[in-house]
Amino acid sequence: MNAPSDWWNGFFSGLVVDFWRTALPAEVTAAETEFLDRHLGASPGGRLLDVPCGHGRLAVALAARGYRVTGVDLSADLLTVAQAEAAARGVEITWRQSDMRDLSFPEPFDAAFCAGSSFGYFDDAGDVDFLKAVAGALRPGGRFVLDASKLAETIFPAFRERHSLERDGLLFEAENRYDALTGRYENRYTLTRGSDVETKVASHRIYTLSQVVAMLKTVGLTLVSVHGSADGRPFALGSPGCFLVSERFAGSDSGR
Fold first, then answer.
1. HSE of 216, CA atoms in CB hemisphere, 13 A
2. For residues 205 and 182, what is the distance between their CA atoms, to the nearest angstrom?
3. Region of residue 99 (phi > 0: left; psi between -120 and 50: alpha; otherwise: beta)
4. Is 18 left (phi over 0), alpha (psi -120 to 50) or beta?
């Protein structure tokens, strides 16, 4: 598969965008919205950072609850969809197109979150840079919720070399492999709708839970709790997901 090191550049375009809009049922978004509302530790009116925000499904849902949300994503196509979703729901959100490691803002956020298994895109140093950027964007005591659902403890017990899914006439087929030497989960995706066919490759660094917790601590974020799903069940080997709630150390400059 040999995904390039910057595979995410250009990945989120075309049929991938159409698929991502419908891949998750509404009840998943509702459950994750409830989880974030409960664990971010911010009050309505508080400033939230969604990074990367994708097509804005959670940013829009939280803005509808009264939060002031900023969404950051590199994909212009995803941001176009996000803007349309926000307009349709009648909510105001600040959108910014940039790398997820570029989080310089004039004012700190009350809380931040990274959803959609979007952690692990980079190499080890790049993933730490992302966490450092998030910590630096938070006020002291501000919380960060990380969807780290591509952990070793979640991926390996349910590993499949191939799987497929169809949504609204769009067929999504995945070929997966794990490279033990690099510690990366490699994927080739084929998307088909009628006569349109697109092939994309992706790659995620696979960490253990203890490694991610150590990375959070390194950048000035202390672990508050770990959950195996958005409904709050305890995390264990084979959990369907992993949601880490952390908090910026009071008094930490977190690289700012």
1. 26
2. 8
3. beta
4. alpha
> What's CA 90's distance to the chain center, in Å?
24
Please report, for residues 24, 49, 96, the alpha-carbon distance to residue 237 in angstroms, rounded to integers and kept in the order given.
Answer: 23, 30, 36
Q: In sequence order, what are the beta bridge partners of 237? A: none
Structure tokens at 148: 């780290």
Task: Report residue 241 as tokens.
Answer: 């997901």
Pair 29, 57: CB distance under 8 Å: yes
* Strand ranges (E), the chain: 47-50, 68-73, 94-97, 109-114, 138-147, 162-167, 170-179, 184-193, 196-205, 221-227, 243-248
Tens-digit pLDDT profile for residues 210-224: 999 999 999 999 999
SS3 string, 20-57, reads: HHHHCCHHHHHHHHHHHHHHCCCCCCCEEEECCCCCCH
Whether the CB-CB separation of 168 and 20 falls below 8 Å is answered with: no
What does the DSSP 8-state code read for residue 63? H
The C-alpha angle with vertex 142 and arms to 141 and 144, in degrees rounded to 5, equals: 130
| Bond from prior residue into 108 cis (ω within 30 degrees of 0) | no
How would you classify residue 188: left for phi > 0, otherwise alpha for psi between -120 and 50, otherwise beta? Answer: beta
Residues 6+ apart with CB under 8 A from 123: 5, 205
* Residue found by looking up tokens 């949601």 in the block: 243
Beta bridge partners of 180: none
Note the pTM of the prediction, 2 decimals: 0.95
The helix, strand and coil proportions of the chain, stated in percent and rounded to the nearest 5, come to 30, 30, 40
Q: What is the pLDDT of residues 138-150, one digit of tens each?
A: 999 999 999 999 9
